[in-house]
Write a structure and sequence with these properties.
Elements: H1 7-10, H2 13-16, H3 27-35, E1 48-49, H4 59-68, H5 83-88, H6 96-108, E2 121-125, H7 126-138, E3 144-149, H8 155-161, E4 166-171, H9 182-194, E5 199-205, H10 217-230, E6 233-237, H11 253-259, E7 267-272, E8 284-289, H12 292-301, H13 309-319, H14 322-349, E9 353-354, E10 362-366, H15 376-390, E11 392-393, E12 395-396, E13 407-411, H16 417-441, H17 449-452
Parallel strand pairs: 1-11, 3-4, 3-5, 5-6, 6-7
Antiparallel strand pairs: 2-8, 7-8, 9-10, 10-13, 12-13
Helix pairs in contact: 6-13, 7-8, 7-12, 14-16
The protein binds pyridoxal-5'-phosphate.
Enzyme class: lyase
Keywords: Lyase, Pyridoxal phosphate
Pfam family, one: Aminotran_1_2
Length: 476
């Protein structure tokens, strides 16, 4: 477009910057899926979407509740008498019954070991909106937040793009299963200080996206001690709090601050119903702060990203139904555990290991042994083969700012079991083909990957599965 070059003069820096991340090469995977989406009958040789951290395993339980509770919706004969009240409601404090129900649910999602004050619940447009809102409250343009890497890539968009806050990675290594060490924290902090960058806080996702692991008590205590000593903020994105399907159980930062002495004004939690309830389209984000000024400021800011009153009304009923929430959390965790085991066992049988994990909607898959060369170019090469030949859209570790090439995040809960089986069969053929090449050439088989793997998913019998086709998502 001719006008594009002139845009930098007439539009804002935010509008013309690339910080959103949509133009990154990683979107090639999404485009490949979008152009050729897998469908068991209509397009059995298409690309399977394994780059989307979505929970589609438990919607039937929610649907059943909705059918049994028509009064909870203003769009039914039984609930329409509330229509006018709800349609007019726009107070940025939110419906009191919604805040009460969310606070209760947040406590349950953390094993009932902590409770949350409804007065500190602030709404945001998903965790996306809540995270950005917090950055606006805690940091000025140019200030920085430390973030342990590998980290959720959209943190760049959510935390940096419009706020102009910087992110400084804290390097975590595979040699200790990507634990966050005090040394790594200190190193990142000092590096920033040396170049006069003001570090305002540390932000992390616990449970981790992309690792699928939960932080243990000693690590959490060391994080609190670190931020307390430096007098910087700690933001814990606990969006996967109830997406924990086996032990060790999840420990929230809210539990730790009951045990460790620290300045609570520095502690903030981000939550959402996008993962734990599988409702990303509802855009229910929560900012929970122990700092009164942050609560009050972010509440004013929340006008830019409120949860619709209709959604609040429905969820107020749903989340205050103890029988439902107990059943949902239990059954959802059971289904996730089953899916996780099916997928990781399948990979294991082919000699592919994943980082041991107990949470999340994905595995952190170790393909280092398949790299042509131990570099990020090598990783990108392998990734492109996986997309174009194996026809799976997985996400390379470099897109999560992992410091070691060869790791890939693979999502397993956004499809049905049959589609997972198709994906596993494709991976198996890929691995077997690779080994055949190795035997024949007696060279590293990876060298011939592109040439020799005339692999085509077309030759495999892929039936009976279904996979949703979604546009490029807002969060992954
Ligand atoms: C760690 C993390 N934070 C935030 C988000 C965004 O969530 P939401 O859909 O609630 O905006 C995601 C989504 O993948 C995530 O993984």
């Amino acid at each position: 477009m001719e006008f594009e070059s002139g845009n930098s003069q007439v539009l804002s820096k935010i509008a013309t910057s690339d910080e959103h991340g949509e133009n990154s090469p990683y979107f090639d995977g999404w485009k490949a899926y979008d152009n050729d989406p897998f469908h068991p009958i209509k397009n059995p040789h298409g690309v399977i979407q394994m780059g989307l951290a979505e929970n589609q395993l438990s919607h039937d339980i929610i649907e059943e509740w909705i059918i049994k509770n028509p009064k909870a919706s203003i769009s039914t004969r039984e609930g329409v008498h509330e229509f006018k009240n709800i349609a007019l409601f726009q107070d940025y404090h939110g419906l009191p019954e919604f805040r009460n129900a969310v606070a209760k649910f947040m406590g349950k999602a953390r094993g009932g070991r902590v409770s949350f004050d409804p007065a500190r619940i602030v709404m945001g447009g998903g965790a996306t909106g809540a995270n950005e809102m917090l950055m606006f409250c805690l940091a000025d343009p140019g200030d920085a937040f430390l973030v342990p890497s590998p980290y959720y890539p959209a943190f760049n968009r959510d935390l940096r793009w419009r706020t102009r806050v910087q992110l400084i990675p804290v390097t975590c290594q595979s040699s200790n299963n990507f634990r966050i060490t005090e040394e790594a924290l200190e190193e990142a902090y000092q590096k920033a200080r040396k170049v006069n960058i003001k570090v305002k806080g540390l932000i992390l996702a616990n449970p981790s996206n992309p690792l699928g692991t939960t932080l243990d008590r000693p690590t959490l205590i060391s994080l609190v001690n670190f931020i307390n000593e430096k007098k910087i903020h700690l933001v814990c994105d606990e969006i996967y709090a109830a997406t924990v399907f086996r032990g060790p159980s999840f420990i929230s930062i809210s539990e730790i601050i009951e045990e460790v002495e620290c300045d609570r004004n520095l502690i903030h939690i981000v939550y959402s119903l996008s993962k734990d309830m599988g409702l990303p389209g509802f855009r229910v984000g929560i900012m929970y702060s122990y700092n009164d000024t942050v609560v009050s400021c972010s509440r004013k800011m929340s006008s830019f990203g409120l949860v619709s009153s209709q959604t609040q009304h429905l969820l107020a009923s749903m989340l205050s139904d103890d029988e439902f929430t107990d059943k949902f959390m239990l059954e959802n965790a059971r289904r996730l555990a089953k899916r996780h085991e099916m997928f990781t066992k399948g990979l294991e049988e082919m000699g592919i290991k994943c980082l041991e994990s107990n949470a999340g909607l994905f595995c952190w898959m170790d393909l280092r042994h398949l790299l042509k060369e131990n570099t990020f170019e090598g990783e990108m090469g392998l990734w492109r083969v996986i997309i174009s030949d194996v026809k799976l859209n997985v996400s390379p570790g470099s897109s999560f700012y992992c410091h070691e090439p060869g790791w890939f995040r693979v999502c397993f809960a956004n499809m049905d079991a049959e589609t997972v089986q198709v994906a596993l069969r494709r991976i198996l053929m890929f691995v077997v083909k690779g080994k055949e090449v190795d035997m024949k050439s007696k060279k590293s088989w990876q060298k011939n990957l592109r040439l020799r793997l005339s692999f085509s998913s077309r030759i495999y019998d892929e039936t009976l599965a279904s996979s949703p086709h979604s546009p490029i998502p807002q969060s992954c």
